[in-house]
Amino acid sequence: MPKIIDHDKRKQQIAEATWKVIAEEGIEQATVRKIAKATGLSAGALRHYFSTQSELLLYSMNLVSERVKERTMSKTYQGDPFDLVKDALSELLPIDDERRLEMEVWLVFSVKTLVEEKLRALSEDVYVEMKEGISAIIQLLVNLGLLKEECNPDEEAVRLHVLVDGLAVHHLLHPVSFPQQKMMDALEYHLKSICTF
């Protein structure tokens, strides 16, 4: 009896192997041949799932975005509003091995979008989703009466978005000088500076 293959699961395994190759060797080394080897498939079998490298990269990067959204949507946010906001924003930061890998790959992918137009639309979509998510967090603070009166919600959403991106990049690029605790302390300091916690 022929083996039944779960094609969606196989595509995810290929995408995860792509992340690993990108994180360890860089996006330019994420060739079909190298990724096929990492997944234990032949290059021909891999091309059955993704006919081009761009198609594979798009799927792989989209999977990063989907996983972040799934984690965020599956959580039950309860308790202290400060911890709730910090926890929600932590989904966008490299606070564990899984998120670190996702962020490393996304950072490399983002640089690639500067020279490969086919990848830009996904990057823009994720940027807009992140912007909207952070704006929703600021609006939650407004609704709870926790954002300081002198703060402009729209401007604070922009500032928080830039801060979260910057924290992630600094921690990824300089983990010794800017360790995780410093990253989280900076986030906490900023939130306390704009809120009445």
Automatic annotation (TrEMBL):
Residues 8-68 form the HTH tetR-type domain. The keyword Amino-acid biosynthesis does not apply. PANTHER family: HTH-TYPE TRANSCRIPTIONAL REGULATOR PKSA (PTHR30055:SF226), HTH-TYPE TRANSCRIPTIONAL REGULATOR RUTR (PTHR30055). One of its GO terms (molecular function) is transcription cis-regulatory region binding. Keywords: DNA-binding, Repressor, Transcription, Transcription regulation. InterPro entries: BetI_C (IPR039538), DNA-bd_HTH_TetR-type_CS (IPR023772), Homeodomain-like_sf (IPR009057), HTH-type_TetR-like_transc_reg (IPR050109), HTH_TetR (IPR001647), Tet_transcr_reg_TetR-rel_C_sf (IPR036271). This is TetR family transcriptional regulator. It holds the Pfam family TetR_C_6. Residues 31-50 bind DNA. It comes from the Bacteria.
